[in-house]
């Protein structure tokens, strides 16, 4: 297994941050041509998703998350900025981990697919992402 932790700046606003390049760079540096890239976010308020970016889908995802998880005072978890409790529910909807096939030393993503970090928590502007390549 080959593993590395990368730092991703997400800023102080909700974001869908494309990390496909970072994942591809990591895979290219491995000795394994085929396997599974495991992407894990070790945070209680962020997740990872495979989604199309740049055509509005990333904004649509954030819009839907705002509707599903409003940043208001309904949440029992109340530390941090107003509505922060919703950020702790996010990983139950946008999982904190995923696996992507690696074939011939490249990510086997579809044409419009990107690996993205989803972060609705503006209280933490920097996130860590653990990349692990499992292969034979």
UniProtKB/TrEMBL annotation:
A Pfam family matched in the record: YjbQ
Highest rank taxon of the organism: Bacteria
NCBIfam families in the cross-refs: TIGR00149_YjbQ (TIGR00149)
UniProt cross-references to PANTHER family, sorted A to Z: UNCHARACTERIZED PROTEIN YJBQ-RELATED, UPF0047 PROTEIN C4A8.02C
Family membership noted in the UniProt record: Belongs to the UPF0047 family.
Protein's recorded name: Secondary thiamine-phosphate synthase enzyme YjbQ
Lineage of source species: Bacteria, Bacillati, Actinomycetota, Actinomycetes, Pseudonocardiales
